[in-house]
Amino acid sequence: MIVKRRSLIVLGFVAICVASLPPGTVRGQATPPPRDPALDARVKAFLDGARNDWRNLNVPYDDGQVLHDLVLEKGFKRGLEIGTSTGHSAIWIAWAMSKTGGRLVTLEIDKGRHRTALANFEASGVAPYVDARLGDAHSLVKEVPGPFDFVFSDADKEWYTRYFKDLDPKLAVGGCFTAHNVLQGMAGIREFVDYVRARPDYQTVIDRTSSAGISISCKTR
After folding, report:
1. CA distance 161 to 141
2. Which of 2, 48, 182, 191 is 20–30 Å from 62 (CA)?
3. In this predicted structure, which of 14-18, 72-76, 81-85, 103-107 has the lowest mean pLDDT?
4. Cα dihedral 12, 18, 20, 22 in deg (nearest 10)
5. pLDDT band at residue 55, thresholds of 50, 70 and 90?
6. How many CA atoms lie less than 13 Å away from 182 in the CB half-sphere?
7. Domain 2-18+61-219 in this protein, CATH class
8. CB under 8 Å to 114, separation ≥6 — which residues?
9. Minimal CA–CA distance to 167: which of 187, 181, 147?
């Protein structure tokens, strides 16, 4: 029942919403390679095997599934993640984009988490679909050229509104800006949610699959 309810939330919202690389550490290739038919089994085994092992501010398993399903159902191909941590959400997103023919750019400021994420991308099999960049997202978000059709923000919450404003011109019409922890009352969250809900060119819903919550704001024009 939980899976069905989550699918209905995402599908209902889908119905509403009809790289030059900078200096630094980079993983992956300029374009995705031909898809390995064994990839699905490999990624699923990795995610299921590590289901209870994620720490360091990673999303819960069920929220990873929500992101995967949204990317897949909308056919997103040009993704950006702000806040890689050790790679849990990026694996879910990149897995979906391996099916749509897309690729994910993900940003992380911490060297240790970035290094662990790279190892997790290799182990899960999604490394060819990920461009993992090490640096401060406050500047990298302004520099990354876009365009994007999917953004996932899971870094410093008080900066969410600024990230949104910086990326709005780079987000394609029909694309979605998603953000984590929007039900948890952290500093900056209320300002961000109020801002995106007030934008007349976006439609926003909150996915409540987990207690963290994911806002999903899709650009309508």
Report:
1. 12
2. 191
3. 14-18
4. -40
5. confident
6. 28
7. alpha beta
8. 25, 84, 108, 132, 134
9. 147
